Amino acid sequence: MILYTIYPHDVIFDEEEDQAKKKQKTLEMNGVKLIVEETEGDDYKILQLISSDPNHFLDQRYQPGEMVTMKPLL
Amino acid sequence: MPEEQPERGQEQEQAQEQNAILNQIQKLGQTQAPEAQSNIHCLTIVGQIEGHLALPPKNKTTKYEHLIPQLVAIEQNDQIEGLMVILNTVGGDVEAGLAIAEMISTISKPAVTLVMGGGHSIGVPIAVASDYSFIAESATMTIHPVRMNGLVIGVPQTFEYLDKMQDRVTQFVVSHSNITEDKFRELMYSQGNLTRDIGTNVVGTDAVEYGLIDEVGGLGHALGKLQNLIDENKGKQPDEQVVQ
């Protein structure tokens, strides 16, 4: 892999591991991709919305900070 | 339900409607949002462009596995008439960047790119990949050679490989913009513009002057241009369909 960037190599590849990142998940809700962080139990907090539809960013359901509940399908 | 019980008053109906919404929230944790359709889809390219290796978590990344299916969906969906790409990136993986740039340049729908803040390094080919490109007056693009860190085994071969990779980037930019190859190489290898480094930091108006970007402008200009391109594209379509 060759990086073509203005950032120095050591800035990108910093050794520090971010523990919070491990609790993050990417999931799909109603066809919209969301990056969520596990809070407690089945609750997840939305961190980021990945979509090319600008209207999804106006949708209250997908705002960062909103909670989503996921239950395992049995 | 209102047909079954015609004697019900309006207030009661409203109360029932609210109750239904409340039930839906309790059951699904969500309500139905009003459907709004946009004929333009927007891709934002931010932070590092991530390639085959996941970068350490503190990097803000644009992942190509997210972008590429979105580009395919945009191409395939009849409701979407145009693509807007907004860049504010520091560069990243060469192959992922070139892949995104090729996808944008080969999409059949009108595409407009807008560089805001910065569109550096591998952001340059992405910025020029569209049908028409804009750069904000205050935005910059750093043009510099592809570099490599770490242990090198077989210096001549590695040099050759890097040189070829550089050529791929240069060729893409030259063939998708109005800049000449000589000018692009001159900017890339010029000294004294970046402290202790070679390359040039090209600011908004200069990027237009060199032919790299089509116009200086912001969001309004870019959306207006995209709408014009969509209208032109609509006018052309009947002819194309006859050919099949």
Task: Tell me what you see in this structure.
Chain A: This is YlzJ-like protein. Chain A: InterPro entries: YlzJ (IPR025619). Chain B: It holds the Pfam family CLP_protease. Chain B: GO terms for molecular function: ATP-dependent peptidase activity; serine-type endopeptidase activity. The complex is a heterodimer of chains A (74) and B (244). Chain A has a domain of 49 residues. Chain A is 11% helix and 36% strand. Chain A is built from two helices and five strands; from the N terminus they run βααββββ. In chain A, strands 2-3-4-5 form a four-stranded antiparallel beta sheet. In chain A, a hairpin with a 2-residue loop joins strand 2 and strand 3. Chain B is an alpha/beta fold. Chain B has two domains: 36 residues, no CATH class; 197 residues, Alpha-Beta Complex (2-enoyl-CoA Hydratase, Chain A, domain 1), CATH 3.90.226. In chain B, 46% of the residues lie in helices and 23% in strands. In chain B, strands 2-1-3-4-5-10 form a six-stranded parallel beta sheet. In chain B, strand 3, helix 3 and strand 4 form a beta-alpha-beta unit. Chain B starts with 9 loop residues before the first helix and ends with a helix. At the A-B interface, strand 1 and strand 5 of A face strand 1, helix 2, strand 3, helix 3 and helix 5 of B. Strand 1 of chain A pairs antiparallel with strand 3 of chain B, so a sheet runs across the interface.
